[in-house]
Amino acid sequence: MEIRATTDEDLSVLLDVVHAAFGRFTETPVDGGGLWWSAIEMDRGLLAYTPDGRPVGSAAAYSFELTLPGGVIAPVAGVSAVGVLPSHRRQGVLSALMRQQLTDVRNRGEFLAVLLASEAPIYQRFGYGPATYTAHLTLQRHRAVFDRPRARATPGAPTTESRTGSIEVLRREQCGQILEEVYDRYRRATPGALGRPHRWWTLGAGAPPVTPTPRYVAVHRDGDGVPNGYASYSVDSGTVTVDETITSDDTVFTALARLILDHDLVTQCVLKHVPHDHPLRWQLTDCRAAQVDHVGDWLWVRLLDIPRALIARGWSMDGELVLDVDDPFLGERNRYLLTVQGGQAHCVPTEREPDLSLDVSDLGAVYLGGTAPSTLVRAGHIRAHHQGAAALADALFRAERSPHCLHWF
């Protein structure tokens, strides 16, 4: 078997392989875009060939930016288009592709790779761990009545009722630039969020509302008329489905949710990709009016340069941890002293006794603060070598807010 890098001339071959791997057929572009593969970077693709020259496996990667805790923006490889033909599975093709891809990512100077896992067991063995989670909520419209906030405002501080703003309902084709600008501000303020390169919006790649698929968009503007949030939605058979609600302001989210729930001739509302700990259900007089249909993993993270990755992210408290990290897929095992002081981290090799021993996939899971190290200790995946080590790791790795990603790639 041979692994080859792809060029622009290989696009049709790569698409044929990955579609056949999933038992699907390649769609035809409409008006020059709107397909998930429109933004594929062919200089980052790989194809696996049999000795007689037949393509049997594929992998690709996008060049993204990931927001880390502390508001740090880091370059990452967004792994996608991974597939092996059914006739050649369990013959080492996928492992060879993943090993070559991780080598290429390192050679580019990127210390993180991310992906959306079609099956969890597949990618955990390659060192990826589930780092963000997302939920789908279904709200019964006539039961979803908002309660009056019970918290007392600080004297002199503006209350929710006193904050001004407006909402305008537009068609998707009327507000492309607004969507791009609002999303970009949101993702820079949200740990775990991925950037959407301009070319994705231009090509209509990915999923709605990036694609030109017909949608209505509720755009929220602040008191100065500046867009600071949006909800992309469609209505069908009495259900309004919201693709995504984008804002860093809980008050704006509530205003957009109220508008969606006030839609005429609708009996229920489905909110996709809501942070799993979002306070919306608590804002209703009947919390059961909003049912959690699904809570699942979304973004998986893989560390390729552990010291760089730990130094790059922000930290909210001081402390020291010795991490013994095993990376069986790449055949590496190293021990690091992580020292955090004043929000800045230093990470160096050490011979000190470890506080925690863990797999690199477990480090990926806790890296953004979305999974508590103590949870993985209790699950039997991370070994805490002394009492208090898990609690210290929880406090150190905790982010300023739960990481959330809703970009599909």
Automatic annotation (TrEMBL):
Domain N-acetyltransferase, residue spans: 1-152
Gene3D superfamilies: 3.40.630.30, SCP2 sterol-binding domain
Active site residues according to the UniProt entry: Y123, F409
Keyword field: Acyltransferase, Transferase
Binding site for acetyl-CoA: V82, G83, V84, R90, Q91, G92, V93, L94, S95, S118, E119
Domain of life: Bacteria
CDD domains per the UniProt record, alphabetical: NAT_SF
Family in the record: Belongs to the acetyltransferase Eis family.
Subunit field text: Homohexamer; trimer of dimers.
Name of the protein in its database record: GNAT family N-acetyltransferase
